Amino acid sequence: MRWLQIVAPPSFSAAPSARSWCRCGYDRTARGRAGVLTLIEAHTHHPEHCPQSSDAEGSKAA
After folding, report:
1. 36-46: per-residue pLDDT in tens?
2. pTM to 2 decimals?
3. Could you tell me if residue 28 is inside a domain?
């Protein structure tokens, strides 16, 4: 299971921030537009390298 939290303040001049974490121990944070965009991409590609990816998020329950 993975989570992505993005905080985008209402003011354009305020820096957004994000946190991506997974139950495998993956835990990353970013600040600023470029950093948040990079983190979103890393979060998207994390399942390819996750040791716990055998049980996909969208799989059907038994």
Report:
1. 999 999 999 99
2. 0.76
3. yes
Which domain covers residue 33, as residue numbers?
Answer: 2-48
Q: What is the 3-state secondary structure (H, E, C) of the chain?
A: CEEEEEECCCCCCCCCEEEEEECCCCEEEEECHHHHHHHHHHHHHHHHCCCCCCCCCCCCCC
CB-count burial class (<10 Å; 0-12, 13-18, 19+) for 49: exposed
Q: Is residue 60 part of a domain?
A: no
Backbone torsion region of residue 5, taken as left when φ is above 0, otherwise alpha when ψ lies between -120 and 50, otherwise beta? beta
Taking CA atoms, 27 is separated from 1, 13, 14, 19, 33, in Å, by 12, 26, 23, 7, 19
| Structural domains of the chain, count | 1
**41 domain-assigned:** yes
